[in-house]
Amino acid sequence: MRRTLRVRPAASALLACLTLLFGLLASAPATAAPSADRLPEQWRSYWVDGFNEGIYTPAQVERLIDDALAVNANALIVQTARRYDCFCNNALYPRTDAAIDPAPYDPLAEVIERAHAAGLQVHAWVNVNTLWNSTTPPTSPDHAYNQHGPSAQGRDRWLNRKADGTERVGANTYIDPGHPDAAAYIVAAVQSIARAYDVDGINLDYVRYPDGSAQTTHSDWGYNPVSVARFQQATGRTDIPAPADQQWSDWRRDQVTSLVRHIYLGLWEVDPRVRLSMDAITYGHGPQAVGGWENTRTYAEVLQDWAGWLDEGIMDTVVTMNYKREWDPDQAAMFAEWSAFLADAQGGRQAVNGPALYLNGVDDSVAQVRRALAPTPAGNTAAGWSGYSYATPSMDSAANGAAAERARLAEALTTGPGAPFAEPAAVPGMRWKTAPRDGHVTGTLALRGGTPLDQARLTLTPLAAPGAYESETRTDGTGWFGFAHVAPGLYLVRADLPRGVTGAPVTVVHVRRGGIAEARLPGLTAR
């Protein structure tokens, strides 16, 4: 029940004076606190996976929080949607079949409650394009595998497919990001977590095409018939493109980027304060050693343009899976190369270095922490560190026990001369969200009756300086489009309508700081 404070008339004048006084004080210029009184900003976290214990019971969660505090962490990346199953009770994804405590136990809610009480952030880790990894189907009839997996036909079948027709690798099946219905489900599922839970962020994993291609210069995946048909529609081609076809690779990479953009702006609609992060591929040597970003396996093989996402501002934080063995000289060089590229590629956003604890002993992991956080020749530093993983904190965990190795790691990171995490730190803030200087534009292009216009080109032109510059984007398979981080002002949105479609192809939007302007282009019809 809400209580109402009632003030007697005799006290109201005094209250008004006090209110005025406090208002004047609040509007006065703030005096910055001494820097020594403020925590330094540096992300520190564990990845907590859902395939091992860690959040299965309240007791495990309690131990997790204690272990995180022991390394002076300030965040946890907790696997929430593992294979389209959820370690939670209130999301679009169905509840997991994993051996967690029975309902009403809600692992995500439990972690959030305990972590926030301890001053730790919680980032819900969501696997994007990995559908299922067992020959036994999930029990929930609502699971995407049961609805849109091997038993589904036609457009209802969302499975990613290789050029040779393969849809399953071992027990693993995947979602094709070029399938519009699958992409729409992913956006809605991510939003459902942010709506139902007080998460500090959403962390995207497997936001890319699968591994297992024949070459490191292209992807063999993406051949869901719906995706291929969309490519043919967009390009006017009638052939089935080869895996190494550059136009086909660019189109598939654009599908992942479009999905990320939609997730980013979709989260902004729900709660602009929610951080979007992702787990970034760093296969092989870094861009410096292979002739540039576009020659990396990240960009060419798994079609994940995370450097471009940072540049566009549609990813708040990139957490690299910089999984390299420090004791192997070649892999140590790879780690250094990716660490330097990561720090220098941040731009106006943030990047966190994520080493593999399970591939290294404690001493080597500490050495990687120091290297991960060291300045580059350009003077840049990564925004922080995330260790993979909580379940296996060192390569010696099997021999010595995970708990013992976790304790050794905590001691090495926080005690002794020059310990990298000797003092607490705060998760870096996001001024582009807490004090935004720009806004966004979104809309949906569809015919009367709701049929979406797929891959239509739209341009955004400032009315204050027409011709000065234009931004361009295309609709996704649902007709949705978005322009992220647009300077405030009036803009003309123009759609290039496909042949045979008539209607008003232009509208004007007013972009405000921190807001999303909706571009409405109604009344489109097909002749």
What is this entry, summarized?
The protein is 31% helix and 19% strand. By secondary structure, the protein is of the alpha/beta class. 45% of the residues are buried.
Folded structure, characterized:
The protein has 15 helices and 19 strands. The strands form 5 sheets. Strands 1-2-3-6-7-8-9-10 form an 8-stranded parallel beta barrel, surrounded by 5 helices. It has a 4-stranded antiparallel beta sheet with strand order 13-12-15-17, with no helix packed on it. It has a 3-stranded mixed beta sheet with strand order 14-11-18, with helices on one face. It is an alpha/beta fold and 527 residues long. The chain is globular and about 75 Å long. The protein has 2 domains: 396 residues, Glycosidases (TIM Barrel); 91 residues, Immunoglobulin-like (Sandwich), CATH 2.60.40. The N terminus is likely disordered.
Number of domains: 2
Number of strands: 19
Beta-strand content: 15-25%
CATH topology of the largest domain, anyone? TIM Barrel
Span of the ends, CA to CA:
58 Å
- The percent range for helix content is 25-40%
The major β-sheet equals: 8 strands, parallel, barrel
- Class inferred from helices and paired strands: alpha/beta
Q: What are the main properties of this structure?
A:
single chain, 527 residues, alpha/beta, TIM Barrel, Immunoglobulin-like, 2 domains, 8-stranded parallel barrel, 4-stranded antiparallel sheet, 15 helices, 31% helix, globular
